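Minutes, project check-in
Item: structure for the 403-residue chain
Input as provided by the requester:
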Amino acid sequence: MEQDTTLAARLDRWARARPLLVDGSLAGVIWLVFGLPGVLVGGPAGLVVATATILPLALRRRQPVALLVWSTAVFGLQLAVLPIPLPANIAQALVIYTVAAHVASLPVRLCALATALAGCLAAGFRWSTEPEYTRNALVIAVFLAVFAGLIWLIGNVVRGRETNMRALGEAYARLEEGRLQRVRFLAQRERVAAAREIHDIVAHSLTVVIVQADGAEYAAEHARPWDRADARTALATIARTARTALTEVRGVIDVLRDPEAADDPGGPPVCLSDLERLVAAVRAAGLPVEVRADPAVFERAPAAVRFAVLRVVRESLTNVLKHAGARATARVAVEWTSEAVRVRVADDGAGASGVAVDGPGHGLGGMRERLRALDGVLTAGPRPGGGFGVEAVVPVAPPGARR
């Protein structure tokens, strides 16, 4: 059954793609079956009328209104010259069906029905015989009218189906376009997220590398004697930071290559040791950092929240390294409350000089976008006593409500 349906669908598509060929072939078959016998019924005049009635069917779907006018005129001529019906009159039924099925204008379709009913009445009286002429005429007219009305109704049903199919096709096309737009939107959002992630990684790593390199350059130029242990420490920090950055950038690129890994962009869940390594790298760059972190955050919070906490701390400390000045001190606090994880990063340096507090895209704006996806809130700005502060609040389910 499924194969028959598939074959029928293919034949239907093939016929719709070649209407002139199909209608021309149909007209030829009808002429052979119903047109040629007209010479036996009505002589040469019958053959001429049958040919004039059938052959224009080759253009029935291209010019249905013109075909209706032509068919009406030929049928009137037939009633005038021939007192009997012809087998070719079956073509008039096809004309009625064509107008009802393929003409969108309701007045034109109603005109075709009225013309058909009038023709049925005229044919009834033309083809009636004695002795009960009027009764026979009415019987013939009613029979032909019922037949013509059914053909007209079938054509309208087919036209309605075609209209519904076109509407469904347009709706499907709109849905498909909406799906493609959503796919493009999601791809764009992934690219933006990847760009933000790479910016955070590279900005932090390069900041540490630059601070270490500047310190090593200054020591090499001014210190007497040159301390190889300090140089080794600076170079080791640079190498470790660069390797870490390279690994994290590769992780982001792997996420872009494998969309199924997009829900776990950071690989294994962030733990307290990741925060400690981050702080150690910043301290090695010369920035004193005081840390107070609740271990429960890195044990109970969802992986996405832990990841966001680490990124907020890293971006904030990177800003301190870049903007707070040489004698600044940073303090980091990560707390677990009953409803949220709260992160505070504050410094006592030069303040907000050079920091884009409300800018979109990267930096603090990138942190806001990351927290917004978790229904979190980030506030940042100069502190009343000097320095700069960043505070992030990320809501989480309380431990008792977690499954």
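Outcome recorded: The longest helix spans residues 133-222.
No further action items on this chain.
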